[in-house]
Amino acid sequence: MNARFDVIVIGAGHNGLAAAEALAKRGKSVCVVEQSDAVGGMACDRLAHLLYNPAPSGVETREIDTVSLSPEGAHVLIRRGEARFTSGKPHPDAAAYQTLYRRLVRYAGLLHQLAEAPPPGLEQGVTSLAGLRELSRLAKLGVGVKRLGKAEMREFLRILLTNAYDLLLDEMPDGPLPGALAADAVRGAFSGPRSPGTVLSLMYRLRHGGGVFLPAGGMGAVAGAYAEGARRAGAEVRCGLGVTRVIVEGDKVAGVLLSDGGRLDASAVLSSVGPMQTMRMAGIAEFDIEAVRRARKLRAKGSTAKLNLRLGGVPEFTGLSAAQVKARLLVAPSVAGVERSFNPAKYGDLPKQPVLEMVLTDGTGPSTLSVIAGHVPETSWTTDRRESFTASVVETIERFAPGFGSLVEEADLLTPEDISAMTGAPGGHWHHAEMGLDQMLTTRPTVGMARYRFGVAGLYLCGASAHPGGDVTGAPGRNSAAQVLADGVA
Ligand SMILES: Cc1cc2nc3c(=O)[nH]c(=O)nc-3n(C[C@H](O)[C@H](O)[C@H](O)COP(=O)(O)OP(=O)(O)OC[C@H]3O[C@@H](n4cnc5c(N)ncnc54)[C@H](O)[C@@H]3O)c2cc1C
User: Fold this and answer.
1) To test ligand 1's pocket by mutation, which of 33, 237, 244, 273 has the most ligand atoms within 8 angstroms of CB?
2) Which of 169, 239, 311, 476 could potentially form a cystine with 367 if both were Cys, beta carbons 3.0 to 4.6 Å apart?
């Protein structure tokens, strides 16, 4: 087997695979090394279920509605900016919602160009070709903001750094309609809608127009398509083999050591695992003290759990038609309720009223309700705690779907601890590192490490901890590959 490549990618999560495809397409010899037996990392059927952005080629998707469930039975049916009650009656806040939603999507479109390239920076000066290109990219963004018009530009700049709580409740009364947007703003993050930067995270998620898509064949098919794309471009993907060490010789990356004792040589190594793990693999002594201190202090407290409930039949939700049950179902009854569910997490406790996102997957086998629960503790999951949390999620659903509990045949709970053990994601965190204002854009994952280059010459980050963060987008992987090509290290 070949032991010399231009580039080694650590981890066949979808970002590692996206990076490999982009580099192989540019003629680089690439080997992706994955510790587990399967590709996809967190983009797998047991964890992720929906796409907010275009799927890789070869995967069919279906856009689905969102139903934000109301404890009083006045459920709201939402598709992009349109909202009405599931009964078909108009919602009194539909117009205010539509105006706000359209504005957010318009602004999010501006962030799109920021997300699909390394974060802006003029460290190379403006006298080189690269510097001039960067300047023109920044100018384009500026023109985009200016084109909004004076009033909209002011509004964009005003809300950019605010919190979702204030923004939403300034525009409409509290309830399941703004509750849905509040839940979307914080899903996967250790934050509540009152936390700073939550409007920016919401806009990131809306940057492809705000649709919610169910991939045919589940997230496993999405991961398979990323792997197929990398292989088709000429990259090798080796599973069941962990990287134990990044070899550094003369202050430059020289390759990796593998869990079977083998060695692969390369002048560039892209790591899709967390910054601290990557540092440990390369050897802490290779980094500045300040860089190590910052990486140690990164906030990456996982707070999302996944519960896969295998059902003996299709559940009936009061007030929902059979078609509406197949929408994305949210339990986020109000913005204040989403904030309240975050409070216990700050002290390592379970939420009393968990915020849930649920999708019924009814392929060929028995139905499964795929449930993402927010604001759960990162650690200390005893058997009792696992059981009581599972019971509280089932009870919460039972309130909307009487008899639901009796349909549950099997419950597969994955806590942040489990997710971390399964994929290596720091803290089991959805984004590998919190999406706070201090860990975004030119400071993602942290100050001085924002352009994928990671301390040692030839070493790069290419996973969710890098700009623009998590979700199944492939953007950090592609951007990192672009940086490697621009640096000419491989
Ligand atoms: C419960 C949950 C539900 C989610 N649901 C959604 C969703 O519905 N939609 C969405 O868009 N996003 C969702 N996400 C977020 C999304 O899955 C992640 O942000 C994204 O998959 C991260 O991809 P990645 O490639 O950067 O990292 P990862 O997927 O974490 O991949 C890293 C890979 O590196 C491998 N690895 C680790 N260490 C080594 C080593 N030493 N050697 C070799 N390989 C190694 C791991 O095994 C893994 O395969 C969810 C996340 C969670 C936790």
Assistant:
1) 273
2) 311
